[in-house]
Specification:
The protein has two domains: 179 residues, Rossmann fold (3-Layer(aba) Sandwich), CATH 3.40.50.11930; 181 residues, Glycogen Phosphorylase B (Rossmann fold). The chain is α/β, with parallel strands linked by helices and 383 residues long. The relative contact order is 0.12. A seven-stranded parallel beta sheet has the order 3-2-1-4-5-6-7, with helices on both faces. A six-stranded parallel beta sheet has the order 10-9-8-11-12-13, with helices on both faces.
Length: 383
């Protein structure tokens, strides 16, 4: 019988971690795997669903965040210290429990150095489902990290799962045993999608304007300024447009601040955690989803797959993985990064209103990227 302890130090954050963790556990259990789970802190967004025991390792952990304040947490050094501690605590808990039943520790994202140290010194088997590229820094700290990573991989007790080929290649260069399993979606979730007009009414959005959604945590590398300037170009062309920003602010890239700086008011900003019901309404109310990442962005995107799940076309910056995806599956359009005029032309493209609706192209993606399709590849690491 296969056994796993699924953990994530970041499940309390307003991102994909809890959603991925909960679904991973649920689909593992559907295949007969005995699963236990842990998260670093207690949060109102974490529920005991599908039999998962979402143990809180540090029940008062949120107090630290509240004492430091949201602004301080934008500083990378403070984030790094807290995330190291979070990873340390969750792996201490996981090791204590895995010794009882010989489970594989399956970690949904973590601080890589802390994880490497645990692999080296605890003799447990680990699987790391990561979303970040390996960044080679040519300094003393960077060289020490490489040595730690190689030592951990040489033990044979650590496997990495990457969401894109580029992420996999970046880690393979430092000796990682890696496999590519993309971000998964629940295709059943797209059954009975909300009506667009009804969704707009519930959200208080205009029924006659073209609405573009920017969904997900507001990261530093999302180029919102170009999107806002493109929308201003559309207004100058008498094109009715409205932007919707939805997600938690986790960097200095605050859409409210940028909208004020650009003197643009045709926008709605929803900050913080967005629950599943509101998520469905936001996607349903939108004409398209914009992912404004930098040129040659090589990582994947959960929002990209969520948009497809909701059968909404995606507008992405060209030159990287995102453009390759929408080109391969014909599920969206691309624009030149940092070029507001080019983006404005794309936003006016009539194909967004006609070509992408009611086609089979979304069904193809939902079949290939569904949890029911990909779960077997995850289970292969539990042998």
């Amino acid at each position: 019988m296969k056994k796993a302890i699924v953990v994530s130090p970041y499940a309390h954050l307003a991102g994909h971690h809890w959603s991925v963790m909960e679904k991973l556990v649920r689909y593992m259990q559907s295949k007969g795997v005995v699963v236990d789970g842990g998260v670093t802190c207690f949060s109102q967004h974490i529920k005991n669903e599908s039999g998962i025991h979402a143990r809180a390792i540090l029940p008062k952990w949120q107090c630290i965040y509240q004492l430091l304040g949201e602004r301080l947490l934008h500083y990378k050094k403070i984030q790094s210290i807290l995330q190291n501690l979070e990873t340390f605590m969750i792996l201490i808990w996981a090791n204590k429990h895995t010794r009882k039943n010989q489970s594989v520790i399956y970690c949904v994202d973590a601080r890589h150095v802390i994880l490497a140290l645990f692999v080296i010194f605890t003799r447990q088997r680990y699987v790391h489902y990561l979303w970040g590229m390996y960044e080679n820094k040519h300094n003393v700290a960077g060289r020490i990290k490489i040595l730690l990573y190689k030592w951990a991989f040489d033990t044979g007790r650590l496997d990495f799962i990457a969401e894109t080929n580029d992420v996999e290649i970046s880690w393979r260069d430092v000796g990682a045993r890696t496999a590519v399993i993309p971000y998964a979606i629940e295709k059943e979730f797209s059954d009975n999608l909300p009506d667009r007009h009804d969704s707009r009414k519930q959200l208080g959005l205009d029924l006659n304007k073209r609405i573009f959604l920017l969904f997900g945590t507001h990261r530093q590398d999302k180029d919102y300024r170009t999107v806002i300037r493109a929308a201003k170009v559309l207004l100058q062309r008498d094109f009715a447009v409205h932007l919707v920003f939805a997600g938690a602010v986790i960097s200095e890239n605050d859409p409210v601040k940028l909208l004020q700086e650009e003197d643009f008011s045709e926008a709605t900003v929803i900050t913080g955690y967005v629950d599943e019901q509101k998520t469905r309404l936001l996607f349903a109310a939108s004409d398209a989803v914009i992912l404004p990442y930098p040129k040659d962005y090589k990582k994947g995107s959960g929002v990209l797959l969520e948009a497809v799940c909701h059968e909404r076309p995606v507008i992405v910056s060209s030159g990287g993985y995102l453009e390759s995806f929408v080109t391969t599956y014909s599920t969206g359009l691309s624009y030149k990064p940092a070029d507001s005029d080019d983006l404005a032309n794309v936003l006016m493209d009539q194909r967004l209103m006609n070509c992408f609706w009611g086609t089979e192209r979304f069904k193809r993606v939902k079949d290939e990227y569904s949890w029911s399709t990909l779960i077997e590849r995850h289970l292969s690491f539990l042998d």
